[in-house]
Amino acid sequence: MPDIFLNTTVQAGLSLLILCILIAAAFYLVSSYRGYNANDRDTACDTLANLKEMHLRGDISEAEYRTIETTTRRQLADRIQSEPSRPQDEGAAEA
Predict the structure, then answer these.
(1) What mean pLDDT comes out for the span 40-62?
(2) Higher-confidence residue: 75 or 53?
(3) Is residue 90 in some structural domain?
(4) 94 domain residue, yes or no
């Protein structure tokens, strides 16, 4: 085996290379997991249905239900307004 691997500078460089590879692999795993979970959210309709169910079971009061419902509807309206408008389908415009 060559004596090049006995040099401390080469050992430090290889150690850094291995560390960078491990960090890149960890970053890939975490980002793929987070991307998977980000797409696993309830829709606004599901959220409101769950909220109504909690209210009917007595888990939350009428005032809490109204407050959360109003906030959720406002956030949904803000999200819809902030989305760029999509062009209409040409076939639908002619009909």
Answers:
(1) 84
(2) 53
(3) no
(4) no
Average pLDDT over residues 55-81: 88
If asked whether residues 25 and 53 sit together in one domain, one would say no
How far apart CA 78 and CA 76 sit, in angstroms, is 5
Which is nearest to 64 in space by CA: 73, 72, 55? 55
Number of structural domains the chain divides into:
2
* CA–CA separation, 65 and 78 (whole Å): 20
Comparing CA positions, the residue from 48, 84, 93, 45 lying closest to residue 69 is: 48
CA angle 91/85/38 to nearest 5° reads: 110
Q: Residue 29 sits in which domain range?
A: 3-38
Residue 21 lies in a domain: yes
pLDDT tier, 6 (very low <50, low <70, confident <90, very high otherwise): confident
Instruction: Extract the tokens encoding 81.
Output: 């307004």
